[in-house]
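FAQ: What does the model actually see?

It sees only this:
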Amino acid sequence: MNREQVKDFTRRISQCNRGGMIVVIYDIFFAYVTEAEDAFSRKENEQFQESVRKAEKCIDELMRALDFKYAVSKDLYSLYVFAKESLAKSVMRNGLEDLNHAKMVMENLHDAFKEAAKQDSSQPLMRNTQQVYAGITYGKNDLTETYQVPEASRGFFA
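And it is asked to produce this:
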């Protein structure tokens, strides 16, 4: 993952609510899968394996976020286990077929969570963070964003 992507994900995490956090984790998963596909096409096996391992960690995080008080969590858990096993098979077989199976399952879930996140009106998870305002100028790949601190001290009070 390049520096620009890390910066973007960091900003999104600092501003998102619960539903948005799940969508961000899915987006990070897809960034690692794309990285794995690129490494595979360049025949860089170690980078391929490392990217797949990082994608597996994203699935681990999604599994930890499940609340088993709800019946749908058991179904999601089964889908996550399938996706994780598919990623492991892709490393073991050194191919993209199983990776694509996992990607397809996760894309369907991502779309569903993206729609659900639009309806989530809860407060952002992180408090006391910088506010991000998108400006009217454009950067290399995106809008130029400005961080403004509404108060002088955001840190730890000693």
